[in-house]
Design a protein that fits this description.
This protein has 228 residues and is of the alpha/beta class. The protein is 50% helix and 15% strand. The protein is elongated, with a radius of gyration of 22 Å.
């Protein structure tokens, strides 16, 4: 499978199944898209999330979680897919026939599908939802192809420690890159300056003390490169 980041702004994600797995999937998309969960019962965490959304609201209407109490059988899945017109359908029920129907309906319509009860060989259009680690604007996604969620979780915990401060470094190095470009610095020098900044222990340590400290350390590194 080819890793991609997908913008779901303004799109709908439908999750069939409101148990622990469906709840986890819904919570992973709730800030990125409109999420509709179709299930006869709902996990407590999902109920809490929906209540919070209902109380707090969402001024722009860009993201929400809607809980629909229903237990569609395999024959009814097509109607649900047509009615909601999602960009992504998640099959997370404990009924293999319903999950298979969700997968088939999505593939037939060219809709992305994430089926949670299978691993390995998947239908065209299938996606695996990766474990993610974020330090805005840096996001690291990892997947075991659905074969070992426990390993994905363990690796995520290790990566969290490794990328601490990466968000601040991304913002700083991006700013430096644009400044050097605006100043007419040759591409080769520009790339070398940014490369050294992001690999400098002094800059990383400086950023831990604050952005201004990190910027001072970075300026020293840049001067050394430009003077060469």
């Amino acid at each position: 499978m080819t890793p991609l980041y997908h913008d779901l702004s303004g799109e709908t994600v439908v999750v069939f199944g409101g148990g622990a797995v469906g709840s986890r999937k819904a919570r992973g998309f709730d800030e990125a898209a409109r999420v509709v969960v179709v299930s006869p019962e709902f996990d407590e965490r999902l109920l809490s999330l929906a209540d919070e959304r209902e109380v707090d609201g969402d001024a722009d209407g860009d993201a929400a979680v809607e809980l629909v109490r229903a237990a569609p059988d395999a024959d009814a899945v097509d109607d649900w897919i047509d009615r909601l017109d999602p960009a992504l359908a998640v099959a997370a029920t404990d009924d293999a026939a319903v999950n298979a129907a969700v997968e088939a309906a999505a593939v037939d319509r060219g809709i992305l599908v994430n089926r949670t009860d299978v691993s390995g060989e998947r239908a065209p259009g299938s996606v695996v939802v990766p474990a993610t680690v974020e330090d805005d604007p840096v996001t690291v996604a990892l997947s075991t192809g659905g074969t070992s969620p426990a390993l994905a979780k363990a690796l995520r915990e290790r990566i969290e420690a490794e990328i601490e401060g990466a968000g601040a470094m991304a913002a700083l190095s991006g700013e430096i890159r644009e400044e050097l470009k605006a100043d007419g610095v040759a591409p080769e020098k520009r790339r070398e300056a940014v490369r050294r900044v992001v690999r400098s222990r002094g800059v990383w340590k400086g950023l831990q003390k604050g952005r201004s400290n990190g910027r001072q350390e970075a300026d020293t590194v840049i001067e050394e490169v430009l003077d060469q």
